Amino acid sequence: MGNGTSMEETMNTNISEAEELEKIEIQLLLQALYEWYGFDYRDYAYNSMKRRIWHRVHSEKLTTITSLLDKVLRDPQCLQRLLADFSINVTEMFRDPLFFLEFREKVVPMLRTYPSIRIWHAGCSTGEEVYSMAMLLQEEGLYDKTKIYATDINANVLKSAKNGIFPLEYMKKYTSNYLQAGGNRAFSDYYSVVHNGVKFHPYLTKNIVFAQHNLVVDRSFNEFHVILCRNVLIYFNKSLQKKVHELFYESLGMFGILGLGDKETIHYTDVTSRYEEISVKQKLYKKVK
User: Fold this and answer.
1) Where do the CheR-type methyltransferase domain residues begin and end (predicted)?
2) CATH for 97-287 (3.30.420.130, 3.40.50.150, 3.60.40.10, 2.40.340.10)
């Protein structure tokens, strides 16, 4: 046998070099978005961003990430398409119904003791979970003294959330979620059927403020009794998760409640000792320090 490099080693070297080049291209694209447009996605989870970037490369009928970078810097419409790819909009009404049931049973009694209630829904997407919370609070007699701040980085999804119109075919699933979450009325009482879907009644949004807020760069804007940020942190890397946890901690009043998604936790973060668990399974925490 000779001392030459085997074909397998050569292939591995080529793959390694291609991955390294790909990583550099992605870093350049994200840095350009930040420096030229002010959108900071540099600390989002790498593999998730890679998939979304390649989806946009292929959708634009391009072959390289560098060619996408060139187009994004010169074509505002391409930029908007890429930003839409980056926006995480997977949601539904009363998503994870047991979370809302636990909230109803364990958090609502605490909220009853406040003269007024401020809730921040961070990363609210198209608003389904915000409407869900409004319904829950309405049924518990708390909505009239509550202000809900529903924020997202994406202006387009906020516009959809304000409209309150959702596909009719989703209502069967949403009704099931609502009942599992402890709902005690006819779910259909909350909406009317319109020509392009169903529209939820305007009284549900009378105490909701929809606004743009970027968890990456924006600061706290109030002190809250409840902060809900569910299934958003999973798309951030560790350093950005740490930064956002600090933001939430600063934004919560003493004994305020933090609600996270089922794959998220405050464990292994710098704020772990500052909370006590209200519900281990449903990821509800109370600020105690």
Assistant:
1) 14-266
2) 3.40.50.150
